[in-house]
Amino acid sequence: MRTELNQGLIDFLKSSPTPFHATRSLAQRLEAAGYQRLDERETWRSESGGRFYITRNDSSIIAVKLGKRPLADSGMRLVGAHTDSPCLRVKPHPELHQQGFWQLGVEVYGGALLAPWFDRDLSLAGRVTYRAAGKVESQLIDFKRPVAVIPNLAIHLNRDANKGWEINPQLELPPILAQLAAGEQREFRDLLAEQLSREHGITADAVLDYELSFYDTQSAAVIGLEDDFLSGARLDNLLSCYAGLQALLDSSNEESCVLVCTDHEEVGSRSACGADGPMLEQVLQRLMPAGDAYVRSIQRSLMVSADNAHGLHPNYLDKHDGNHGPLLNGGPVIKINSNQRYATNSETAGFFRHLCLTEEVPVQSFVTRSDMGCGSTIGPISASHLGIRTVDIGVPTFAMHSIRELAGSHDLAHLVKVLTAFYGCAELI
């Protein structure tokens, strides 16, 4: 099971270089399992046993499996994650022509570790909006092959490089796409029109706009002398999206279950399709009974907010509280913060720990050092919007927000096992 799950995640990561592609990949897997797509602009008809999903902005997705019991009596079991990861986004007018090199201006999306982006074989993917035959359409593209690189400056020209230096995103991050003849210049939108034709057979009258990101073409892999680790891009947080999907598909049909994978978490979630927007609440209001029964349903529900945790790094032990350093391959981590950066409380943590003990899944705890700041997740956001009980958990990882992150090769299976049990749990707290 572990090997199969890890390979499934590697395949999912490869097909999901952007939130748009991740959402499409999740939708394809749901449809293959019999889930029906619902359009938010149309009237919905939902009934016991129904399986369906909703997307918004092509980058967020909610999948729902309605159980047999009335929602006001049983509530829902929700797993939440996010589809976005820190990256380099292409600017609207990105063309840079310097000394015969064609480069693109980029904007840093989210809290990215910038140094690892140098000297990587980069490709480009995302969504392009274009006009064809008088109609405005959008399409996903993925160049797949390496088309760009951000070369480092040689150590001979930057003697202080190994002492650390502040990277200037405006000046030092524009990737190089090509070397041009003297006086030659290229238009980025022409390149996108060519890609639309090559990848989809689309003849665009004009490329109107785009949301495109660079990504590392190196595939994720199981590594280590004893295959202990899983290395790859976008583990934060596509690992949780994939684990939630597998758990949903593997769970029984008795209980009502929801998988929520939203965009824009890395930049605060404040968007129409982010966790701090109305998407989840609007979907639940359309599916659940109204009025008093809706509140009863919410109060009988529980959300597991799944987002990666900081594993105890052997080279940086002083960055952790001595009693709360989660180990890779030590099982999922319950994340706790007294200032509500995580939504966990003693009851929700106790319930999740009980599930892990019942399923014989190892479980750990994380609290950040008292003299350090703490990140956050969609957990507190969803809890405050819905009034739903929530526990924040995640798989321990190294190098979070790097272009390549590291997790334990056993932990995906641990997470899928406990989330599957959660989806099938007849009694919540």
TrEMBL record:
Cofactor field: Zn(2+)
Keywords assigned: Aminopeptidase, Hydrolase, Metal-binding, Metalloprotease, Protease, Zinc
CDD domains, A to Z: M18_DAP
Gene3D superfamilies, per the entry: Aminopeptidase i, Domain 2 (2.30.250.10), Zn peptidases (3.40.630.10)
UniProt KW Metal-binding keyword: yes
Annotated Zn(2+) binding sites: H82, H156, H401
InterPro entries in alphabetical order: M18_aminopeptidase_2 (IPR022984), Peptidase_M18 (IPR001948), Peptidase_M18_dom2 (IPR023358)
Catalytic activity, EC: 3.4.11.-
A GO BP annotation: proteolysis
GO cellular component: cytoplasm
MF GO annotations: aminopeptidase activity; metallopeptidase activity; zinc ion binding
Signal peptide: none
Family: Belongs to the peptidase M18 family.
Protein name: Probable M18 family aminopeptidase 2
Organism for this UniProt entry: Pseudomonas pohangensis
Lineage: Bacteria, Pseudomonadati, Pseudomonadota, Gammaproteobacteria, Pseudomonadales
Name of the coding gene: apeB
